[in-house]
Amino acid sequence: MTSAQVDKGQADGPEAVDTGTGEGYQRGLGARQIQMIAIGGAIGTGLFLGAGKAIDRAGPSLILAYAIAGLVIFFIMRALGELLMYRPVSGSFSEYAREFLGPFFGFVTGWTYWLFWVVTGITEVTAAATYMTYWWDIPQWLSALVFTVILYGANLISVKLFGELEFWFSMVKVTAIIGMILICAGVLTIGFSDAGDTATVANLWNDGGFFPQGIGGTLMTLQIVMFAFLAVELVGVTAGESKDPKTVLPKAINTVPWRIAVFYVGALIMILSVVPWSTFEPGVSPFVAAFEEMGLGVGAAIVNFVVLTAALSSCNSGMYSTGRMLRDLALNGQGPKAFTRLTKNGLPLAGTTFSAALMLVGVWINYQWPGDAFNYVVSFATISGMWAWIMILVCQIRYRAKADRGELPQSSFKAPGAPFSSWFALGFIGLVIVMMAIDEDARISLYCAPLWGLVLGVSYLTLKSRNPQNTSFAKR
Q: How many angstroms separate the Cα of 12 from the Cα of each of 3, 89, 330?
């Protein structure tokens, strides 16, 4: 982003202020908050609920799927880290796509990532409303409305409040998983609870082997596994509002391996050792099922609270990121000019409000189809989220080539093994897309992608024809 673009954005409203970040944002996110945003971004409903379906399909080999996918996620995050240390900006994905691939890719990436979070926000507020019915018989649409309004209000107060909410949401998820691991370890070593007599590490291979459904079954879980990791890249969006991005962001990114090792691989090893994989059923949280098998019925209520916070965390992240992405697009002439304005607290009011209004569609969906609401909006999230990952990897490859030729300064946080690690990650994402095409349940995501691409292509050409002098549409 050029200084001229920033100046233009700041001049569009009296409430817009320059806080010294180069983009007008306030650096209100500290190390503690960034670390927990990074940790919480990798832990969501995909683990707490989606893992049940994946276990049914792959058995214990799901552990290997999460481990390999986790390595790929680490490659993606280190590629993002290299770009962030080269140029930390709030609209990171679209900014890098615009710089290294051209304005059209910046346009597509920005709007696609924005749509990803709007869709995810609708999905998660729908899920949160469903979880509330576990305790109280209240209409889903009412819960969805209340949650949307509360999170919207919190995001309009300050970026620090957003960070605090994410800190505590993440703390709940982390505590729950660590608690589950410790309980399972106690069952395996001491033998307490109803599952004490049958709990053994041998459960990982005794019931049909480590690959009970074959390699094909394991491969078919890859889209579920990758969906669980969506939003891990959110830490990149916080770059423009981090107090010390050059120090904090690398530390947060380098925690990815142990996060995945503990919260995904470790948790699944413990659960599948205590409870045979054939016990789990699709649509049922493996955490709830494990508690029930151990005779700890109170665990169901605990897990319901945890998945509620996970859903609210994701919706909160959506509120945060959509406003930033829309402002970045607007500053580059690829979105409505009104989205450039900031409040006195350095918050993108117009973009956040517009996105929150669209998320209210989720309230209407919950009112019209309370039983099927989740399925109506979830299909597009995976493919649109993976587009951001593809852009990160491709941009890192282009950046590294230019830096090695001396055309750009070297990053202080180079991705290990790049560009080969980035090419490997791209190949893995390609495999996931192939698996999605084979899977009837996931195939609808691929049907939506071309339609969205057509909408973006027509919109881009229309904007370009109306603004031929705009440098944001010039070829590079």
A: 15, 20, 11
CA angle 45, 155, 90 (to 5 degrees): 85
CB count within 10 Å of CB 385 equals: 22
State how far the Cα of 372 lies from the Cα of 390, in Å rounded to an integer: 31
Burial label for 367, CB within 10 Å (0-12, 13-18, 19+), is middle
The pLDDT value given to residue 210: 92
Least Cα distance to 290 among 52, 57, 131 occurs for 52
pLDDT digit string, tens, across residues 437-465: 888 777 777 887 888 889 999 999 988 88
Q: How far apart are CA 234 and CA 229, in angstroms?
A: 11
Tokens coding 171: 């703390």
Rounded CA separation 365/169 (Å):
25
| N-to-C CA span, the chain | 14
**294 vs 192: CA distance, rounded Å:** 9
Please tell me the predicted confidence (pLDDT) of residue 168: 86
Name the one residue in this structure whose structure tokens are 């004490």: 196
Distance of CA 340 to the CA centre of its chain: 24
pTM of this structure: 0.85
> What contacts 305, CB < 8 A, 6 or more positions away?
172
Residue 29 per-residue DSSP state: B
Q: Which candidate, 2, 29, 4, 37, places its Cα nearest to that of 346?
A: 29
For residue 249, the model assigns a pLDDT of 80
Determine the 3-state secondary structure of 242 from DSSP: strand
From CA 328, how far away is CA 349, in angstroms rounded? 13
Supply the DSSP string of 359-412, one letter for each residue.
HTHHHHHHHH-TTTHHHHHSTTHHHHHHHHHHHHHHHHHHHHHHHHTTSSPPPS
Output the six-digit token pair for 413. Answer: 């946080």
For the segment 245-285, what is each residue's pLDDT rounded down to a tens digit?
777 788 878 887 888 888 889 989 999 998 889 888 877 77
pLDDT at 123 exceeding the cut of 70: yes
Contact 55, 211 (CB under 8 A): no
Nearest to 237 by CA among 158, 322, 165: 322
- Token couple for 360: 């209210």
Cα-to-chain-centroid distance, residue 249: 16
